[in-house]
Design a protein that fits this description.
single chain; 226 residues; mainly beta; Metallo-beta-lactamase, Chain A; globular
């Protein structure tokens, strides 16, 4: 079995190790009342670990997953066979962060590749948080044409600060998943500002150092929808 990264839409990703251990980050759900963002329920994916960056409905649906997974919601280190997970706590972007809402950045390492899921973090994390994050090979960053969380410039600043080989946009409008009520935009405006954009035309990609580019690329996944 080879290690892999699968996009499930919005900010949800599954990382699977060579030994078959699975980690899902930020499974989504609609709020219990009022407006809704998602046209589909989150798929019941049996996993070993669920990492939740922060307690907003579009990131915190840990209870939907079977397999009696370990749930990580804060800073620290966790190791399971050939997967190592490091959580670094900082603040949510925008007003939520200014009001004190925390966000945990997760770095998941397997098969020699370090994947950083930024959650809804602010772009200007303190240097001590940057040091906790460490080296980054693949970075998921929140960016959409409505600048719901970060402006294009802030997203670019965050990418430059963490210096990954691969950038994966997330938290944007997907026609078969996201409602217009969410007010999210698509990713195309930001993608047009990037030098190298690689549509993968798949929801799943192998995690291998040999597949990482020497020059930074933006990879666009097709979401695997339930």
């Amino acid at each position: 079995m080879s290690a892999s990264l699968t996009c499930l839409g919005h900010c949800a990703f599954v990382l699977e190790s060579e030994q078959g251990r699975k980690v899902v980050v930020d499974p989504f759900q609609n709020p219990s009342e009022g407006y809704y963002w998602f046209l589909r329920a989150f798929p019941d994916t049996p996993v070993d670990v669920v990492a939740v960056t922060h307690d907003h409905f579009d990131h915190n649906n840990a209870d939907s997953l079977s397999g009696n997974p370990t749930i990580l919601k804060g800073p620290g280190e966790f190791t399971l066979d050939d997967i190592k997970i490091t959580g670094a706590r900082d603040l949510h972007s925008g007003n939520s962060g200014r009001l004190g809402m925390v966000n945990t950045i997760f770095v998941i390492e397997t098969n020699g590749v370090r994947v950083c899921h930024i959650g809804d973090n602010r772009h200007n994390m303190p240097e001590e948080v940057r040091d906790q994050v460490g080296d980054v090979d693949i970075l998921m960053v929140t960016v959409d044409d409505s600048s719901h969380l970060l402006s294009f410039e802030e997203a670019d600043e965050l990418v430059a600060r963490l210096s990954p080989s691969v950038v994966i946009p997330m938290h944007y409008y997907l026609p078969k998943l996201t409602t217009t009520e969410s007010s999210l935009g698509g990713p195309n405006g930001w993608l047009e500002t990037q030098k190298i954009v690689k549509p993968l035309n798949t929801s799943k990609f192998p995690l291998e150092r040999a597949t990482l580019p020497n020059t930074r690329e933006v990879w666009v996944f097709d979401a695997q929808l339930a």
